[in-house]
């Protein structure tokens, strides 16, 4: 039987779309490329949602108003963002949690000693896997049909209208409307090679990249839409949510536990033993995702995070222990770094450290002076043995090349929005994220556009005009008002 709405994808954005479409009365079929045990895509590896709020709210402390959220996003993207869509995402983030709770998502209370993230981000109890499982349970209880191991190879589109999807197995599935939420192309090694090209030695830098999330985001539909169907594109194929992760991490699905979080507490050097960026630029949740790209631009796409014993206990400990030594020359030798160059770097850094009271919870005045690159906060000499070093490589979470859309989540062809084909999640995140990242914003984008895409897909199935994301926000506000009355 032909469904009203076909949802292609199995992560947060796809599930939000399926739930919203079903709540609107549409019959829904969801196709997930992965087996059931690996369902959920990159969402299974997430931990939190960045949320706007004007006052303390359940699991969120203090306030994080729209303008501060916007300025944080503006800073990390360097202005490469579509402001209207970004602001809609921000506003939606302040009202979506009650809807999420109705579908079984639980949030954990704020943790002591984690003020910055407890103020800006709501953490999922049990992490992203628990969120994904809750959404699947709710979807199945509501009658959403789910099929696993069902990757889609191409779409039938006529004059900008979705007609049917063709699976990799050759099955044709027609529907009245469709939501695309199948992720980026970060798992496609050939496409990464194409995007990043060769270096001067004829090597492919991207061969050294690790993929933090799912192996199933191959970008097949994204390429089909862009190249074969002529959908409007947005974003740079080399831009991505890219984090510095342990060089020993697995090729796929290492997730959060592979991240190295001590960067701001020490220095980072390349394989020549030289520093290359300000490790103390800003709080780690705002700037952690720049470090993957920074390392990607270094020789051999590798870096080394160096700390001393003063840093121990101040960051999330990694799964794999770092190299440990009683002296800095010994540490350099263990890491395979040129000892003399490494020692020149560390001695120059130690001599340049200035400032007063070290405080990793604020932008303190511990800085370097007369050093390039500077370290602008949390700079204190690395002198207390034992010393630790972690080799890091670029860990790609998701890519930003995607489909251009608007506040209805419609896919656009030649500037004209489709009447029945919508997009959400990583396939359109480049509309908000031209570059850079700040913790939890990917889930904010996926939740906002997943919900409006699902609602509009249900409306398209009934041949009703689309609504905007602002309408969803208004509905949430009205529901919140009635709930508190």
What is the CATH homology-level superfamily of the largest domain?
FAD/NAD(P)-binding domain
Distance between the termini: 43 Å
CATH class of the largest domain: Alpha Beta
Which fold does the CATH topology of the largest domain refer to?
Answer: FAD/NAD(P)-binding domain
Give the number of helices. 14
Strand count: 21
Overall helicity: 25-40%
* Coarse structural class: alpha/beta
Shape field = globular
The CATH architecture of the largest domain is: 3-Layer(bba) Sandwich
Strand content: 15-25%
Using only CA atoms, what is the Rg?
23 Å
Explain what this protein looks like in three dimensions.
- With 485 residues, the chain is an alpha/beta fold.
- It has 2 domains: 5-184 and 219-237 and 400-484, 3-Layer(bba) Sandwich (FAD/NAD(P)-binding domain); 246-395, Flavocytochrome C3, Chain A, domain 1.
- 31% of the residues lie in helices and 19% in strands.
- The protein has 14 helices and 21 strands.
- The protein has helices at residues 12-23, 66-77, 83-93, 97-102, 115-120, 127-142, 189-196, 220-228, 284-287, 291-296, 328-335, 339-352, 441-461, 469-484; strands at 5-8, 28-31, 48-50, 121-123, 145-147, 152-158, 161-167, 172-174, 177-180, 210-211, 233-234, 240-246, 267-270, 303-308, 323-325, 353-354, 367-368, 387-399, 402-403, 410-413, 416-423.
- The strands form 6 sheets. It has a 6-stranded mixed sheet with strand order 5-2-1-9-21-20, covered by helices on one side.
- Strand 6 and strand 7 form a beta hairpin.
- The radius of gyration is 23 Å and the shape is globular.
- This is Tricarballylate dehydrogenase.
- Pfam families: FAD_binding_2 (PF00890).
- Its cofactor is FAD.
- It comes from Pseudacidovorax intermedius.
- Keywords: FAD, Flavoprotein, Oxidoreductase.
């Amino acid at each position: 039987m032909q469904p009203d709405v076909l949802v292609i994808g199995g992560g947060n954005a796809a599930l939000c779309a399926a739930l919203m479409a079903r709540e609107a009365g549409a019959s829904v079929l969801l196709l997930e490329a992965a087996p059931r045990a690996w369902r959920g895509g990159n969402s299974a590896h997430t931990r939190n949602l960045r949320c706007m709020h004007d006052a303390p709210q359940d699991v969120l402390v203090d306030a994080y108003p729209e303008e501060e959220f916007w300025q944080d996003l503006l800073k990390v993207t360097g202005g490469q963002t579509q402001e209207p869509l970004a602001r809609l995402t921000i506003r939606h983030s302040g009202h979506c949690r009650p809807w999420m709770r109705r579908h079984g998502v639980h949030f954990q209370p704020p943790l002591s000693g984690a003020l910055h993230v407890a103020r800006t981000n709501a953490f999922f109890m049990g992490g992203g896997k628990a969120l994904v499982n809750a959404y699947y349970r709710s979807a199945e209880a509501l009658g959403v049909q789910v099929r696993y191991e069902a990757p889609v190879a191409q779409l039938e589109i006529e004059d900008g209208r979705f007609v049917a999807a063709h699976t990799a197995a050759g099955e044709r599935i027609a529907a009245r409307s469709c939501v695309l939420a199948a992720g980026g192309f970060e798992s496609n090694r050939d496409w990464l090679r194409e995007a990043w090209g060769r270096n001067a030695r004829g090597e492919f830098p991207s061969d050294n990249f690790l993929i933090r999330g799912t192996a199933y985001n191959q970008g097949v539909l994204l390429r089909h839409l862009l190249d074969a169907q002529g959908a409007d594109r947005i974003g740079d194929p080399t831009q991505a949510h890219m984090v510095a992760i342990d060089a020993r991490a697995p090729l796929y699905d290492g997730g959060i536990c592979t991240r190295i979080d001590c960067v701001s507490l020490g220095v980072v050097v390349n394989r020549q033993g030289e520093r290359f960026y300000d490790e103390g630029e800003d709080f780690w949740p705002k700037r952690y995702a720049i470090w993957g790209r920074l390392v990607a631009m270094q020789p051999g796409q590798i870096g080394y995070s160096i700390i001393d014993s003063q840093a121990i206990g101040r960051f999330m400990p990694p799964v794999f222990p770092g190299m440990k030594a009683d002296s800095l020359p010994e540490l350099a030798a263990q890491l395979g770094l040129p000892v003399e160059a490494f020692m020149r770097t560390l001695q120059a850094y130690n001599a340049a450290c200035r400032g007063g009271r070290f405080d990793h919870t604020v932008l303190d005045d511990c800085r370097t002076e007369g050093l390039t690159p500077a370290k602008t906060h949390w700079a204190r000499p690395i002198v207390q043995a034992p010393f630790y070093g972690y080799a890091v490589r670029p860990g790609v979470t998701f890519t930003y090349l995607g489909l251009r859309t608007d506040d209805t989540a419609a896919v656009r062809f030649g500037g004209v929005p489709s009447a029945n084909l919508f997009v959400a999640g990583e396939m359109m995140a480049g509309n908000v994220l031209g570059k850079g990242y700040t913790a939890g914003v990917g889930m904010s984008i996926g939740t906002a556009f997943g919900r409006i895409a699902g609602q509009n897909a249900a409306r398209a199935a009934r041949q009703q005009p689309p609504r905007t994301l602002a309408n969803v926000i208004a509905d949430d506000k009205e529901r919140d008002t009635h709930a508190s009355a």
